[in-house]
């Protein structure tokens, strides 16, 4: 199966998607991964995300999806959980199935008996508790820190690098949410690996990016069908 990926939102997240998808596909015996990546505009996404301009962002993504369609892709994935704020609007326009990064998470939490999670990501991800798509799982956020955490996340995503101060902020936020009753911290922003990779946090951390990559790798290997995974 030919996977299409909208990247550039941001660049560091795209690189991690590429690295982990290639590795996951190889683990599943895929000797030749069919993958095409197009470059999205992160500043445009940030403006539309903060203003909740879902229709406008979906229209901005549409030419990229059409380019992937013309390249022969069978499905499309967004390399940003923040970009999923306009997923329904994009699905309505897209000529290709969109593979969601959000939909599989709730089922995973339920299977693992994870009752409450702490969320880190964009302002919108935190304010909406992952777009209100968690049915069986409760979510904790630091309401008094949403703007600070969201701005730090945005700055890190644009720069493609994490400062020591940003890392300390995110790690401490995770610790506070665990103390508030979260069973695990979910990295609901695909650039958060820059802050958390290689860190001994002392608490459970779940990277949402890994679930999305696993689903895409399963599609590439023929282990899953678009009927099950696309929206």
TrEMBL record:
Keyword Nucleotidyltransferase: no
Listed InterPro entries: Asp/Glu/hydantoin_racemase, Asp/Glu_race
SUPFAM superfamilies noted in UniProt: Aspartate/glutamate racemase
A Pfam family: Asp_Glu_race
Domain of life: Bacteria
Keywords: Isomerase
Protein name per the record: Aspartate/glutamate racemase family protein
